[in-house]
């Protein structure tokens, strides 16, 4: 491609709309253009990168025997009602774009395709003999994200590879799942990324396991906890660890104390000269179940620990049946406005005890009249502890379970693991923390969707059984941008060779110099001929401008047909290192071929 004929516009200044380096660079270098919130055009250079990433993904998927297909993006609401997800996706999470067609039928734009694929399997797969089967597609997904940001990292329309496998049993599912873990590692390695596979929360989807593939970068929205020995890595949402030991309490007898202005644990411990490990803090949450029932949840946890909302959400989902509900829609810390809707009187916030009275709640049809009281494991064994008194400005010290306070009936594990905690597999190892960008997620779904949608096959004994399913996603557009987030310098992007839009850019320093043009044209034809993807900067611009642009767009090798032509040579500069080589014109092709092959392997 000749730059003189390309839609090629670069910006010298960082665009105001971008916060992180990769987003700024992709905009500045003319790869993407914002069309609306979370909506981007992939310009020609970007599209080449995306096609390369897709091709790597495709090759790794095909190698496992998965088959590519293309499913509709426009999806009937009825399918989503069958799985029970229409209301959660369109209302609760509100992530699905939904609309009515001219016949007043509801349809949505696909945020994911479990429903569509399951209905196909239901229709087409009759017998165990047809299993296992694995279908995948590479296609745009639509999600009305609450906070679209960072360019392609969190878009409202983005490219995903999603795959779904169907099995007769868990063992067969696990085999495919393992193959996918390997395929995903291969994809990321081949794309030139530094990544980590981590244990992940399977959340409401359930199933027996899931892993995320995290590209390590400071701008990552996820926190990964891992140990140096390489034995453990997990998303903080899922991570487990051993909490520090509690210090023994200095308070020997039960007593109420005036503790003014101590609504936080820090202030309280300073005031009472005690350790947060001697405090039971009581944290209030508000859960809304799918039948509209609001439940106020009080979690008692050791003062030095924090509640992990993802873990709490999972516990509350398990308890949905107690409230005649199927699943949970929202989990929030109720602010003053939310409290106003159900509080019968003002709550002693910051001073609540585990037994805070139920009459703070004005119960109704929609609001459960009793607190759901949960206790985290870290608080169960505390003795002579400090906690609230249900009166602002006062705490109690020297309290004990089943003496001053009944032990909450439901014991849960909802504490967040954090950096510095001892690892469960080996207490000598402490958890380290890193930021990660989630580029892939693989799930063992089990029978959740097949059961809900009545998707069954006939097994060897002639019985109707629900499919055992897995699903596997890669954010193709997010992956491409995360490569930039991991690899850039002050001059611009440094693409890994495997996914760079072009391998080589030839810069003609002076377009009026016939010799320079002649050699450049010759090399341009020759390199492209031999499969080296080459750009020719034949614009009538100063050499400095051309070099700046070449660095900005991040093409791995730059050829300059300049001074050394008189010696029968050209200059070849490596983008990543700025290392310059003088190479004989007739050896350029073979040398570059070697370098590129070596870099892509
Ligand atoms: P996240 O937690 O980042 O919102 P998710 O867990 O909802 O992602 P999945 O449903 O597992 O995402 O989708 C599979 C992959 O699609 C993700 O691993 C991610 O790489 C990509 N992805 C998800 N949402 C977006 C988005 N809004 N923009 C770009 N890529 C996305
Ligand atoms: Mg995910």
How would you describe the overall organization of this protein?
It is a single chain. The chain has 601 residues and is an alpha+beta fold. Helix 1 packs across helix 12 and helix 2 (44-63) packs antiparallel against helix 6 (170-190). Bound molecules: adenosine-5'-triphosphate (ATP) and magnesium ion. The site of magnesium ion (MG) has 2 residues, from strand 21.
Would you tell me the overall average pLDDT?
A: 96
Structurally, the number of domains stands at 3
Shape: globular
Strand coverage percent: 25-35%
How is this structure best summarized?
This protein has 601 residues and is α+β, with helices and mostly antiparallel strands. The chain is built from 15 helices and 31 strands.
Looking at this protein, list some descriptive labels.
single chain, 601 residues, alpha+beta, BirA Bifunctional Protein, domain 2, YbaK protein, Rossmann fold, 3 domains, nine-stranded mixed β-sheet, five-stranded mixed β-sheet, 15 helices, 26% helix, 27% strand, globular, binds adenosine-5'-triphosphate, binds magnesium ion
List the helices and strands and how they pair.
Layout: H1 21-28, E1 32-36, E2 39-42, H2 44-63, E3 67-68, E4 74-76, H3 77-83, H4 86-92, E5 98-100, E6 106-109, H5 114-124, E7 133-142, E8 157-167, H6 170-190, E9 195-199, E10 209-216, E11 222-226, E12 233-235, E13 255-258, H7 265-272, E14 280-289, E15 294-302, H8 309-318, E16 328-332, H9 336-340, E17 372-376, H10 377-380, E18 385-388, E19 394-399, E20 410-412, E21 432-446, H11 448-452, E22 456-458, E23 464-466, E24 468-475, H12 476-486, E25 488-489, E26 492-493, E27 504-507, H13 514-529, E28 534-537, H14 543-553, E29 557-560, E30 569-574, E31 580-584, H15 588-600
Parallel strand pairs: 3-7, 15-17, 17-20, 27-28, 27-29
Antiparallel strand pairs: 1-2, 4-6, 5-6, 7-8, 8-24, 9-10, 10-21, 11-12, 11-21, 13-19, 14-15, 14-16, 18-19, 21-24, 22-23, 25-26, 29-30, 30-31
Helix pairs in contact: 1-12, 2-6, 2-12
């Amino acid at each position: 491609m000749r730059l003189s004929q390309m839609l090629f516009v670069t910006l010298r200044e960082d665009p105001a709309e971008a916060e992180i380096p990769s987003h700024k660079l992709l905009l500045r270098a003319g790869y993407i253009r914002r069309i609306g919130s979370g909506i981007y055009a992939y310009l020609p250079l970007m599209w080449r990168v995306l096609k390369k990433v897709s091709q790597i993904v495709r090759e790794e998927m095909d190698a496992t025997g998965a088959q590519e297909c293309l499913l509709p993006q426009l999806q009937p609401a009825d399918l989503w009602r069958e799985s029970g997800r229409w209301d959660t996706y369109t209302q609760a999470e509100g992530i699905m774009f939904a609309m009515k067609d001219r016949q007043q039928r509801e349809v949505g734009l696909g945020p994911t395709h479990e429903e569509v694929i399951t209905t196909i399997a239901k229709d087409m797969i009759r017998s165990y003999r047809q299993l296992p089967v694995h279908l995948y597609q590479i296609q745009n997904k639509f999600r009305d994200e609450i906070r679209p940001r960072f360019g392609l990292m969190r878009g409202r329309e983005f490219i995903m590879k999603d795959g779904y496998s169907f099995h007769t049993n868990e063992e067969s599912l696990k085999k495919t799942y393992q193959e996918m873990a390997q395929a995903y590692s291969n994809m990321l390695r081949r794309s030139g990324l530094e990544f980590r596979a981590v244990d992940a929360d399977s959340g409401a989807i359930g199933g027996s396991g899931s892993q995320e593939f995290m590209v390590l970068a400071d701008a990552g929205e996820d926190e990964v906890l891992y140990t140096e020995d390489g034995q453990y890595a997990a998303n903080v949402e899922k991570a487990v660890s051993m909490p520090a030991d509690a210090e023994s309490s200095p308070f020997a007898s039960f007593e109420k104390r005036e503790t003014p202005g101590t609504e936080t644990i820090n202030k309280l411990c300073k005031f009472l000269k005690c350790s947060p490990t001697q405090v039971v803090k009581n944290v209030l949450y508000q859960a809304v179940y799918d039948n509209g029932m609001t439940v106020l949840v009080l979690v008692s946890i050791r003062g030095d620990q924090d509640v992990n909302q993802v873990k709490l959400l999972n516990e509350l989902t398990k308890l949905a049946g107690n409230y005649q509900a199927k699943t949970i829609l929202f989990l929030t810390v109720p602010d003053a406005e939310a409290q106003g809707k159900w509080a019968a009187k003002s709550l002693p916030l910051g001073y609540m005890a585990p037994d805070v009275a139920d009459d703070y709640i004005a119960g109704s049809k929609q609001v459960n009249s009793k607190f759901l009281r949960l206790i985290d494991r870290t608080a169960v064994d505390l003795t002579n502890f400090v906690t609230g008194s249900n009166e602002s400005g006062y705490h109690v010290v020297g309290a004990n379970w089943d003496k001053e306070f009944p032990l909450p009936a439901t014991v849960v594990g909802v504490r967040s693991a954090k950096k510095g905690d001892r690892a469960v597999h080996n207490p000598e190892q402490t958890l380290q923390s890193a930021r990660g960008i989630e580029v892939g997620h693989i799930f063992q779904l089990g029978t959740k969707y097949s059961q809900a949608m009545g998707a069954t096959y006939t097994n060897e004994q002639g019985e109707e059984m629900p499919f055992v399913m897995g699903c596997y996603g890669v954010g193709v557009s997010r992956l491409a941008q995360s490569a930039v987030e991991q690899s850039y310098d002050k001059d611009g992007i440094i693409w890994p060779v495997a996914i760079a839009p072009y391998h080589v850019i030839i810069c003609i320093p002076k377009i009026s110099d016939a010799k320079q043009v002649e050699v450049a044209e010759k090399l341009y034809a020759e390199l492209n001929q031999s499969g080296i993807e080459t750009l020719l900067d034949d614009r009538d611009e100063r050499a400095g401008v051309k070099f700046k642009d070449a660095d900005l767009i991040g093409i791995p090798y730059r050829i300059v047909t300049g001074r050394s032509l008189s010696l029968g040579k050209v200059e070849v500069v490596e983008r990543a290192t700025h290392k310059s080589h003088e190479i004989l014109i007739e050896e350029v092709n073979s040398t570059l071929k070697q370098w590129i092959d070596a870099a892509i392997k």
